Amino acid sequence: MLTQAAIGSLLEGEFVDNHVHPTMEEFYFFLKGEAKITINNVDHFCEKDTFIKIPKDSIHSLQAITAIDFIYWGIAI
Predict the structure, then answer these.
(1) Which CATH architecture has domain 2-76?
(2) Is the entire prediction scored with pTM above 0.70?
(3) Which end of the chain is more exposed for a tag (fewer CB within 10 A), N or C?
């Protein structure tokens, strides 16, 4: 079931600190900029047109390397 759908943005250097969703997977699609998503201590570098899935129960964070715009969805499992 879809629980979240939004367009987000972060300025260069802004971040979302480590957190976990025990009952939800997240999906990000990057519209602009460069970012680093860390999932379970593994860094993933994202840029325009990158699509990435964050599995439930994964410790994850998001850091804007440059200003970023993205769409994200949360899906309850």
Answers:
(1) Sandwich (2.60)
(2) yes
(3) N
